């Protein structure tokens, strides 16, 4: 068990990874594109949600929380870009490394939990409308729900706040940030198991199962009804959300679990595949604003008004003060809803 970087030598496969310049450049370019689209798209989305959308329904509150996590990722990615372009060399100190890493993880798992909350909100509104209409203090519950999500994520990720996540590699003359983890980051193998399983099962797998159940139930419910254009759009959107959730978040978390098990017990590694999966997880933050546009008539109308592109179609000329949600033909109660799926950056090598 390594206590410091000078007492442990990395294997050749790991050293080769840090010397792979082409992969680092490719990942950096992808992150640059993600950052640009993220900040522009989510910045505009946040402005519309905060200042141009009223009233603030539970769905809007969840969407604001989700957009906030996307923007957090967008502001953190430039640090990762600089780190990659410098050949995996971190120069901003241990506290900044811990802060940026925590921001990445918090973004990913808060996005996943928020998507679950949106899925539950839609499930209740579409599949259980009578019970849902009787619910009181929905806005208050949504705000409390967002606070609980952040509290849960931060409690699971607490070790990242109290640990030096940098690691010196003298033979390469670099200092990594959260790419090589010391075993003594946690006091025992049991603590490592609890940390890993909490991230993968509590913060990913359980929300994924709940989200899948909710959207599959919504699709089945809408499929039994008449085929209006609005309902068909809702069904297509539900499929897209599940697809994005699966493509963006599932590979990253599965590879995180696989890599850690391989590293700890079999002296092998799946780190390169894991590193590449981070790119897919970040793409989620770019897709969200486009999902808003195609999912919500109100959001679409507000954006077109800003860009002076107001449609002359009869569908887009419906008065905006009704604040129709995506499922307004199915639900008679308030329901402006925005679709999301998001993520962030993760760790990786565990020293022997």
UniProtKB/TrEMBL annotation:
Main localization category: membrane
Keyword field contains Metal-binding: no
Molecular-function annotations in GO: G protein-coupled receptor activity
Spans traversing the lipid bilayer: 25-50, 62-82, 102-120, 140-161, 189-216, 237-266, 272-295
Membrane topology classification: Multi-pass membrane protein
InterPro entries: GPCR_Rhodpsn, GPCR_Rhodpsn_7TM
Tagged with keyword Membrane: yes
Protein family membership: Belongs to the G-protein coupled receptor 1 family.
Name under which the protein is recorded: G-protein coupled receptors family 1 profile domain-containing protein
């Amino acid at each position: 068990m390594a206590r410091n970087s000078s007492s442990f030598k990395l294997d050749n496969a790991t050293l080769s990874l840090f010397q792979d310049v082409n992969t680092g450049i490719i990942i950096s370019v992808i992150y640059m594109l993600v950052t640009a689209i993220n900040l522009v798209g989510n910045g505009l989305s946040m402005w519309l949600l905060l200042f141009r959308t009223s009233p603030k329904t539970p769905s809007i509150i969840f969407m604001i929380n989700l957009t906030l996590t996307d923007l957090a990722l967008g502001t953190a990615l430039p640090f990762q870009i600089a780190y990659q372009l410098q050949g995996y060399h971190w120069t901003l100190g241990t506290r900044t490394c811990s802060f940026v890493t925590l921001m990445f993880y918090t973004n990913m798992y808060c996005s996943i939990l928020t998507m679950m909350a949106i899925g539950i909100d839609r499930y209740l509104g579409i599949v259980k409308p009578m019970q849902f209409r009787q619910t009181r203090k929905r806005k208050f519950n949504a705000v409390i729900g967002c606070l609980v999500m952040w509290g849960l994520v931060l409690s699971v990720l607490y070790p990242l706040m109290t640990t030096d996540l940098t690691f010196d590699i003298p033979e390469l003359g670099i200092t990594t940030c959260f790419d090589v983890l010391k075993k003594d980051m946690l006091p025992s193998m049991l603590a490592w198991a609890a940390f890993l399983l909490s991230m993968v099962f509590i913060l990913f797998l359980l929300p994924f199962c709940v989200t899948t159940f909710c959207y599959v139930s919504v699709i089945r419910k809408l499929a039994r009804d008449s085929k209006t254009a609005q309902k068909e759009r809702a069904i297509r959107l539900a499929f897209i959300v599940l697809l994005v959730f699966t493509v963006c978040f599932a590979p990253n978390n599965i590879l995180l679990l696989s890599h850690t098990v391989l590293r700890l017990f079999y002296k092998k590694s799946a780190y390169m595949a894991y590193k590449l999966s981070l790119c897919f997880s970040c793409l989620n933050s770019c897709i969200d604003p486009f999902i808003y546009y195609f999912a919500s008539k109100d959001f679409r109308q507000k954006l077109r008004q800003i860009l002076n592109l107001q449609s002359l179609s009869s569908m887009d000329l419906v008065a905006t003060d009704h604040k129709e949600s995506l499922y307004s033909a199915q639900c008679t109660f308030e329901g402006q809803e925005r679709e999301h799926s998001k993520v962030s950056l993760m760790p990786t090598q565990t020293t022997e």
